[in-house]
Amino acid sequence: MKIIVKENDIEGGAAAFKIFEKGIKNGAKVLGLATGSTPVTLYQNWVKSDLNCDNLTSINLDEYVGLKPDNPQSYHYFMQKHLFDKKPFKKSYVPDGLEAAKDPQAAADHYNQIIKDNPIDIQLLGIGRNGHIAFNEPGSSFDTVTREVKLTDNTIKANSRFFDNIDEVPKSAICMGIANIMSAKKVVLMAFGKNKAHAIKEMIEGPVTEQVPASILQKHLDVVVIIDKAAASELYDKYKK
Ligand SMILES: N[C@@H]1[C@@H](O)[C@H](O)[C@@H](COP(=O)(O)O)O[C@@H]1O
Fold this sequence. Notes:
Protein name: Glucosamine-6-phosphate deaminase
Number of strands: 10
Distance between the termini: 18 Å
Number of helices: 8
Number of domains: 1
Family: Belongs to the glucosamine/galactosamine-6-phosphate isomerase family. NagB subfamily.
Function: Catalyzes the reversible isomerization-deamination of glucosamine 6-phosphate (GlcN6P) to form fructose 6-phosphate (Fru6P) and ammonium ion.
CATH class: Alpha Beta
Oligomer: single chain
Order of helices and strands: EHEHEEHEHHEEHEHEHE
Shape: globular
Bound molecules: 2-amino-2-deoxy-6-O-phosphono-alpha-D-glucopyranose
Keywords: Carbohydrate metabolism, Hydrolase
InterPro entries: Glc/Gal-6P_isomerase, Glucosamine6P_isomerase, Glucosamine6P_isomerase_CS, NagB/RpiA_transferase-like
């Protein structure tokens, strides 16, 4: 893993954008994209740039089961607002939360086929405080592919900040699996803030275990981790400076 420690999320977003820009200029065409508060500074750099996205395909990690694409809390809506309204891609896939509510297996099979047909060149990730990636919660098998996943109480609580109240947070999501994520040629993981420090330490320095889903990235051959000093604060000394 290559670890880049920046002062804050603004610098981190700029550094992440440079990696995507370089990758795209070098031929990356299929990007795995992520939501959450963490990638916002990356997308801010992206929309300000003159990067041509007309030939790019994006495949998002996850979506809440039952939310319509025009629901402001849906990940469809997030992507439109933060990136695609200003930088439309040739094709953008986000799992279908409504299809998943009706027939989760069909929605998952459909999405796995999309990933098979469009191998991911660069996959963007955030990380949950418990080490989850996308919505692959602790205990998820490393073999998983896209499927419906139940959200843990902690994740529901953490994500309730985006909803009017906690009861509105969906209880499940349709989510790429860890095997889908590991199939990407390159992975860029971003994390900012003290509340991510423990998960970052476990991911980088802990054992590879399904109890910390992100720890599997130690086995991927091309991972760049972009964190700020707060998220690096529990790491072995050399990263803290
Ligand atoms: N499914 C998303 C993840 O993809 C994201 O990485 C995580 C952290 O979110 P944030 O970046 O807002 O801290 O939250 C959610 O659970």
